[in-house]
Amino acid sequence: MSFPARDLAVFIAAAVILVSLALANVALPILLRGIDVPPDVADAAQEREARAEALQAALDALAETDETQTAGADTPTVAVLVADHYRHRLNQIQAEGVDGGTAAWPEERRMHLLAIQAERRSIVGLVQRRRIPIDLAHRLLRETDAEEVALPIAPGMADG
Question: Per residue in 7-61, pLDDT tens?
Fold first, then answer.
């Protein structure tokens, strides 16, 4: 027993699906063009609080680690150096909560990018002068790429 209009039914179903998808992709952006969706302030505040709490936990763990390291060393311990980085990030998060975002974000990011670009130029120069092998240069360039990707993004920058 064969379904007499099987091919027609499959064709109509496929056509309805494709037309629906095409219509949604064309019509929805046009219909939604004038609608401004406000940022979800509750989510931003919740994210800021979660980040601050996580950074504080990291600082607490580093403080405990620093206390167990050998006392009396003249140079700062590794835990103190890492803690400075976390303290800086925590200060940024807290300042963001006070004024809705700091003016220093774009400038700090620009300075980080400037330094990373200088690193890259130096690595390329070392290869060109044959002071390092190409595989080492690739590894160093991957590390600078990772540093760039890991740069903090100011609130609202990721949305654009």
Answer: 999 999 999 999 999 999 998 888 888 888 776 667 777 888 888 899 899 888 8
Q: Which residue has the tokens 């330094």?
A: 115
pLDDT of residue 160: 40
Least Cα distance to 93 among 82, 104, 83, 79 occurs for 104
Residue at 53: amino acid letter: E
Give the sign of the dihedral formed by CA 44, CA 46, CA 50, CA 56. Answer: positive
Gap between the Cα atoms of 72 and 82, Å rounded = 19
Instruction: Residue 82: name the closest of 104, 105, 64, 58 by CA.
Output: 58
Is 110 exposed, middle or buried, given 0-12, 13-18 or 19+ CB atoms closer than 10 A? exposed
- Paired tokens of 108: 């700090």
Q: What is the pTM of this model?
A: 0.51
With beta carbons less than 8 A apart as the criterion, state whether 118 and 148 touch.
Answer: no
